[in-house]
Design a protein that fits this description.
mainly alpha
């Protein structure tokens, strides 16, 4: 978070213009690998019985969805999500 804050304060006048950076890829990758390893090590049933693991899974999933939406563009992601109804 500190590197993201420093990048915003130094390089951007408008923080909303800052797109996906290497920090985003690094943190989302790290947390995805962590969740996968914990599910593999604990088993899915034991993994999802812990409230904190469920919280981590939801946050990681939302991060992956947000990263995919940023990479693919907002409109192409909405077209894919429409079929999930």
């Amino acid at each position: 978070m500190l590197t993201r804050t420093a990048a915003i304060s130094v390089h951007m006048s408008n923080p909303l213009e800052l797109g996906v950076t290497w920090e985003t890829y690094a943190f989302v990758s790290f947390f995805t690998i962590e969740a996968c390893l914990k599910m593999f090590g604990m088993g899915t049933h034991d993994y999802f019985t812990s409230g904190w693991n469920c919280f981590d899974f939801i946050v990681t999933g939302v991060s992956l969805i947000g990263l995919a939406a940023e990479i693919l563009g907002h409109w192409s992601f909405l077209v894919v999500a429409r079929h999930l109804r």
